[in-house]
Structure formats: structure tokens, C-alpha cells
Amino acid sequence: MARKKKGRDISGWLVIDKPAGPTSTAVVNKVRWALDAKKAGHAGTLDPDATGVLAVALGEATKTVPYITDALKAYAFTVRLGQATNTDDSEGEVIATSDLRPDDDQIKAALGQFVGDIMQVPPQFSAVKIDGERAYKRARDGEEMEIAARPLWVEELLLTDRPDADHVTLEMTCGKGGYVRAIARDLGQALGCLGHVTQLRRIWSGPFDAEDGLTLEQVEALARSPELDTHLLPLETGLTDLPELRCTPESAARLRNGNPGMVIASDVEYGDEAWASLDGRAVAVGIYKAGELHPSRVFNAG
Q: Which of 55, 96, 258, 291 could form a disulfide linkage to 84, CB 3.0–4.6 angstroms apart?
């Protein structure tokens, strides 16, 4: 007989402004402890040295994580020109150098090739699986791997500052699965000067903004107190990119049992993904078909 998980049945989102240092998993564990929550997860890993938005989902909100993972997100990052490292950031070893330093106009001209639908090869030190094993584990053993390029949508990539000849600050808005370190590496190669990331901050992710996030110090100070609960955002926040369809109590009961339920629709088309609500609370996510929602995820009432 499986042991029952300890903790509260609490659902919602807590936005953390992650500091440099801890892993994303460590942040989630801290939040879960602070809220005494049974279940927690996050929507998009940040490297330990990266800062910014880490949206932590609790309880039923973990079912909405895929919609935040798929949403657009924005990063501000600094690239060190003239050096390539084996990790594509400043934590790695310098493996090549260049004395070439492009000017601002050359950099701006090169950015265009990284906007739109692009193909990107993840860094050697990444969580991509190669033959069932994480690439970073094999890279730590000194193995150099062939990692297949992956599609990435880049909405925008802008030069925002040039502190000195060796550094350039950029802002990027992109879709799911983007590696900022790979952008820095590939930009350096395109310019012929090499490059790697020295600072990285996720400014926003879907509906979540770093400026609205709690620090870990605040989480610790408010841990196990009712005040921390007041910072929770409703699980419905994770569904803001999907259309909302209202339903009746009878339809809500059917949907929660995994059956199609009647919904009130306006601008939703046949085959669209949407979510059904009752009194503003999420009931289910599914596919809209001829007046009914066919559920793929259901949310427990409470």
C-alpha cells in the first residue's frame, strides 16, 4: 500500500524571482516546504546561474504547466565576445579565443538570422537526452556528442546595450525549448569573434513577470504562514492563452468525470483547445466540438 503524501491540498501558482545559485528543483522544493504543499512543479528550468521568473505550480495547477511551457518568454542576457567555452557560459572552460570585435552595426545585422523559425543545436552541457542519457552527464565525462538541431521560434532579438568592446547585452523573446547559451554561441560564430553567456535573466514567461515574483528570502520569511498563501495566483492563470467557455453545474459534473459536456461558446471554432469554467473556476481543458468540450485534463473541485 502506497504511503499517503504529507502536506496540504493547495492549488495555484507562486511566482519566484530566482536568484543565481540554486537549481530550479531546489527552488521548487523550498516553495513546497514553505507552503506545506503535497505537490509542486515548475514551468521551465533555469540554469543555476540564471535569474528571473520561475513559476511554481502547486496541486491542480501542475496540470496547466504545459500551457506555460509552450507560451512565449523573454530573456535579457549578456554575451562575452572573443571567447568560446565548452558550456557556452562563463562556468565552462575557455576552448577558443578571438581578437576580432564587431561593431554595433555588424552585430545588429547578424541578429536577423536568429529571428523567426530557426533551427538550433542545444549546448553539449544541456538536459537533452542522447540514447536515454542526459547530454550534460556525457559531456562531463569528456564525450563530444552530435546533437540534432531543433526548431525554435524567435519572436524578437534586440541589441539593448554595449557596455564595452568585449560585451553586448541582448533581449530575446522566444517560444518553447530555446537555449540562450546556444544563441550566444551561434551569434559569436556568425560574427567570427566567438561568444558565450555571462549573465542571463528571464524577464517574463507567459503571464508571469519577474517584477511580481517573490525572492527566496521572502518565501523563507513567510514560510508556513497564512500571509504566504495570499501571494498565490489561481490555477486559471496558467490557462490565459486558451479561450474560456462557461458551463452549467450539470456539464461540470460530466466533464470532471471525463465525459463531454455542453459549454457556451462564442468565438471558439470546432477543434480548438479551450477550458471550461463554472463560476470562474476551471473545470476541464479539452477540444471544442459542436457545442461540447471533450476533456483531456480535468480539475478537482475545491
A: 96
Using CB atoms within 10 Å of the CB of residue 159, give its burial: 0 to 12 exposed, 13 to 18 middle, 19+ buried. middle
The C-alpha cell at 120 is 538550433
Pairing status of strand 208-209 against strand 195-205: antiparallel
Which pLDDT score, from 0 to 100, does residue 137 have? 73
- At residue 231, does pLDDT exceed 70? yes
Query: Can you list the pairs that 251-256 forms with residues at least 24 positions away whose Cβ atoms lie under 8 Å?
Result: 251/276, 251/283, 252/276, 252/278, 252/283, 252/301, 255/283, 255/284, 255/286, 255/293, 255/295, 255/298, 256/283, 256/284, 256/298, 256/299, 256/300, 256/301
Q: Using the 8-state DSSP alphabet, how is residue 125 labeled?
A: S
User: What's the sign of the alpha-carbon dihedral 169, 174, 179, 184?
Assistant: negative
Predicted pLDDT at 206: 96
**What's the grid cell of residue 29?**
522544493
The residue annotated as part of the active site, out of 9, 17, 47, 141, is 47
Confidence (pLDDT) at 125: 66
Residue 267 has pLDDT above 90, yes or no: no
Give catalytic status of residue 47 as yes or no: yes
Amino acid at 39: K
The grid coordinates of residue 2 equal 502506497
Sign of the torsion angle spanned by Cα atoms 282, 284, 288, 291: negative
What is the Cα–Cα distance from 229 to 91, expressed in whole angstroms? 36
